[in-house]
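Retro notes, structure queue

What went well: the backlog is down to a handful. What didn't: a couple of records were mislabeled last round, so from now on we paste the full input next to the output in the thread. Example, using DivIVA domain-containing protein from Streptomyces hiroshimensis:
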Amino acid sequence: MFWFLLIALVVVVAAVALFVAGGGSGAALPEAAADRTVWPLPADRPMARSDVETLRLPVALRGYRMAETDEALDRLGAELAERDARIAELEAALAGAQAAAMGGGGAKAAGRTEGGDGEEGEKKE
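Corresponding output:
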């Protein structure tokens, strides 16, 4: 029985080795056709929260399709970075406007106080 299993194992290993080494016709395999699903994210506008909530990434044999998942995450990252930059720009503009208002408002308030004191002084005399 042992010899039979040993010979069967040798025959199977030899057959697999010949199959792999032979390789058939030797021609390269043709490119696989892309089996991508329709892209659910809008291409003509920035993504909204509802777009992200409805996003369903296509599933492959061992999980999500890496290329499509990476593409979706790259786009989300780029749009978030763009929004963060815009928010920072607007916050800087707001801080500048507030600083200008405080600087201009402080001078006006000081002028009123001085003018008010001067007027009261004139009235008292």
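Agreed that this is the format going forward. Reviewer comment attached to the example: The chain is about 70% helix and 5% strand.
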